[in-house]
Amino acid sequence: MHPKVFTYNNTFTLESGRTLSQLHLAYTTIGELNADKSNVVWIFHALTANSNPVEWWAGLVGEGKLFNEEEHFVICVNMPGSCYGSLCPLDNDPETGSPYYHNFPLFTTRDMVRAYRLLKKDLGIEKIFIGVGGSMGGQQLLEWAIEEPELFEYIFPIATNAEHSSWGVAFNASQRWCIESDATWKEKHAEAGIEGMKAARSIALISYRHYETYFKSQHGFTTETEGASIDKQVFKAESYQRYQGEKLAKRFNAFSYYFLSQGMDKHNVGRGRDSVRAALQSIKAKTLVISISSDILFPTSEQELIAAYIPNAQLSVIDSYYGHDGFLLEFETIETLVKEFIDQQKKDNNKASLANTEASKY
């Protein structure tokens, strides 16, 4: 499935004050808009994913799944700065005619949402039935639900936060340090900093997983070296870290990784809006906040805060040993929670309507 491309040929101003003369976004759609355009499901991807959720969230999106083409018009946009079709550091800067590389502008999660609003308008979408996203995707979802309080009927922010924590910033800063320490990073070519990004991914994985995750899946030595002398044995955990770094390097670049992590660090829904609390209190969507019990990167306390401030929001905590990556893997539980929440909201609305009808008789 090839993504579509939306191009905006007018000036786009970022939070930093920097202006762009052109902006393009790659996006994937599944299904068709119904007659009254009431079946839109907008999915927000996380740091290194793409605009096709069938590839990275197959347990929830696709034929016969929770979000499917038979019932919904599913849309997912590749966030600007990423390398899957939207404006990115490897694209040419119109001012120089050469790739941006290190001069790529910072897109905050708020900038990203404001770009998506242009696409929404172009598609003629006025209401979104469901908004859902985990991690950095959840950050974007919250931003949009604040920017346009009447837009979403339901939102499901998963394993995310209202303001990126000092803990999260420290992880991202350490990863960027790895990239900066790569001797090639200052060079201007697509592979610059790639070895540093491999090491950065290794650090990221530790924050995405949990002690139990590694103990259950990476304990002991690799099969190839298990019977070798002790100085020749290789731990599964070490091999796994290297494998994941190499794997990401085959599909991503250090520039996108670097700038996207900065965008995550700048996430703060309270910026320019009095406070985080005031911003969250402006959300009008029916909200179920979902947390992963073993998440050390976005701990449950952050989702508790979101649920406490969004009016009438509910919180569900999934007991999982997968850590932060549980938002990608616990799809059966997520599906159950989403269905039950929507069903309960509909029942409550029906009861309220019936009560109002009865009251009007007197």
TrEMBL record:
It is found in: Cytoplasm. Substrate binds at residues 201, 325. Its EC number is 2.3.1.31. Belongs to the AB hydrolase superfamily. MetX family. Homodimer. HAMAP family: MetX_acyltransf. Transfers an acetyl group from acetyl-CoA to L-homoserine, forming acetyl-L-homoserine. This is Homoserine O-acetyltransferase. It comes from Danxiaibacter flavus.
